[in-house]
Amino acid sequence: LLATSGTLAQTKAPEPLVHAQFRVLSIDGPILGAGYLEGKNLRRIDISGDAFTAEQNYRGPNPLRLVLTKAAPPSTDRLMAQQTHQAIRARLEVLTRELQEQEAKALKASRGEDGGGRKLAKSARPPGTTDRTAEILKEMEALQTRLQALESQLNQASIPRSEEPEPDAEKTKPGTNARDDKSPAHTPLADVTLPGDGRYLILIQQTATGATVNIVDDREGVFPFGAMQFINLTGKTVEVRFGPNHLHLASKDKGTLRAPTANRNYASGQIYTQEADGLQPAYSMRTFQQDDVRTLFFLLPPTEGRKGVQLKGIEERRPDQPITPEAPGKDAPAR
To answer: Are 278 and 243 in contact, with CB atoms under 8 Å apart?
Structure first.
């Protein structure tokens, strides 16, 4: 009985488990042949430098282990198709917003309103109002043609499925190891220690000494739509200023702010770096506020021989609010 108790005491404690949803982005560029381990299974993900991966539902050991397959990845064409797909989608969103603005202008011009929506007397209406309406409609027609061309490209940019099925531990023959028998050989990319159960954005930066990881809490309200989040990777202390809203960020720190302006208005901001003689201007930026879009900005060191900072931004639109042209009202001009 004593021997049995001793054996039980020496039994290794189980590895802590975590349940998390996550998406991954590479700060430096695409990472081909990537994946992560979920128990004995290898889950493939192609990591882009321009957009986050699809959300992964992970239930397994903490830390999460990101890996690279040793074999040459067969998914280069798939990754290129995904990036083309994302680029065209982004362009479609820009054009649709532009089209909405032109529709609003055309509606105001047809009503004889000024920029503030006030009615103008016929004698006070600027000359060429009718001509301007025609110009707007002509421009809208050109935009519609461009939209159709992009949608045609999008239909051609099909995304093939991964060539190799994922190994499944439940379907493995008794007495075999799924990782050894079905998973291709792999090497570690990064171990990601998650704070706990939750939803996260995982940002990977590859350096000479290996990959470094930043984790962004993506719970509802932490990084809201309409806001900007800055991640300081410059190696210096920086300060971000948008009017009265300031962010003081130490190296590797991150913070969120919102531009002090209304939806669909421009705002100007400045970034300062801490130098030997105090804070010095390093970057000026002008942003367009959209309450259904959030932007993640990476503050990076300047290229060799230059001063200031480099800025890389990744935009994301709220998924439950797709962009669709507004339905024309009774007074909308005929097309």
So the answer is: no
